[in-house]
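Customer escalation, tier 2.

The customer says the design service returned an amino acid string that "doesn't look like it belongs to this structure." They asked us to rerun it and document both sides in this ticket. The original structure tokens are below, unchanged.
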């Protein structure tokens, strides 16, 4: 039986504080992207060290955090990449996690860093797909051990948004996440909109995926909206959650007994399009989902 109702929250960006001021009772949790709270001068000389924090943003976030739970959601470590883990970024992330009291920390099961000639670590510009095999598993497991040592909190990995099939992979993404949970103690951040991206682009069957994923591993869910670009449907965080994604959330979430939070992602560049009322409406729907999930889980537990 579930111990408590999952929290409802937002992925942090510069306009989230205004959403919290508009609808404070609707936001219980904030997913914080550490990479957006500093300037990284990795490839240049900077007085005061490599990472220069955005002090005003951190102070505003700390103010918004009162009475709320915070977690970390990183994009810069690129755990599946064969490149060595960036220890300076790990240490900077750990320091921020201690300051903001992250309750758990998530990264992406996608590659964001690629080798690029004289520049050792270059951003790919989007999350590149991963080959799910033993070699990739061992790369990620080793880096997770480093993160656990420094962050000292639960770790999650998020399924990626895939636009084309990945050939010659030894296992499915769901099986790979299940193995990370059973053998490396790493939970799953299940991005339901990323599954929708895969369906729209003809890459995967979300229902098969959701039947395959170990329900015990899922500790956070992400919802979002996207749009088409150059013939592909993208995870642009540009709109409200599609109805089909809501259907998956209601059907499968009661199985996720370890679910801690349900998070809506939107990019600040689409804030004017969505509006405060639109975002608040999405949060209200998420609260209804959280209540329904808890009720369904309790009923199921009582029958077992």
């Amino acid at each position: 039986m579930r111990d408590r109702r999952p929290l409802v929250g937002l992925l942090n960006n510069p306009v989230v504080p205004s959403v919290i001021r508009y609808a404070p009772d609707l936001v219980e949790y904030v997913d914080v992207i550490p990479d957006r709270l500093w300037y990284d001068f990795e490839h240049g000389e900077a007085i005061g060290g490599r990472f220069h924090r955005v002090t005003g943003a951190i102070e505003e976030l700390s103010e918004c955090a009162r009475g709320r739970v915070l977690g970390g959601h990183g994009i810069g470590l690129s755990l599946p990449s064969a490149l060595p883990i960036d220890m300076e970024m790990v240490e900077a992330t750990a320091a921020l996690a201690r300051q903001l009291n992250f309750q758990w920390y998530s990264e992406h099961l996608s590659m964001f860093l690629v080798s690029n000639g004289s520049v050792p670590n270059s951003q790919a510009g989007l999350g590149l797909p991963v080959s799910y095999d033993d070699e990739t598993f061992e790369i990620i497991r080793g880096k997770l051990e480093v993160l656990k040592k420094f962050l000292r909190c639960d770790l999650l990995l998020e399924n990626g948004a895939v636009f084309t099939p990945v050939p010659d992979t030894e296992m499915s993404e769901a099986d790979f996440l299940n193995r990370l949970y059973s053998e490396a103690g790493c939970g799953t951040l299940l991005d339901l909109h990323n599954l929708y991206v895969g369906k729209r682009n003809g890459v995967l069957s979300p229902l098969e995926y959701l039947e395959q994923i170990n329900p015990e591993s899922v500790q956070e869910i992400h919802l979002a909206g996207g749009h088409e670009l150059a013939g592909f449907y993208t995870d642009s965080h540009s709109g409200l959650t599609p109805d089909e994604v809501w259907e998956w959330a209601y059907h499968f979430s009661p199985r996720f007994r370890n679910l801690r939070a349900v998070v809506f992602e939107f990019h600040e560049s689409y804030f004017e399009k969505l509006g405060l009322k639109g975002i608040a409406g999405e949060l209200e729907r998420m609260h209804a989902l959280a209540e329904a999930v808890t009720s369904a889980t309790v009923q199921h537990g009582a029958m077992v």
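Tier 2 assessment: The sequence is consistent with the input. DSSP finds nine helices and 14 strands in the chain. The domain at 33-234 is CATH 3.20.20.150 (TIM Barrel). Sent an explanation to the customer and offered a walkthrough call.
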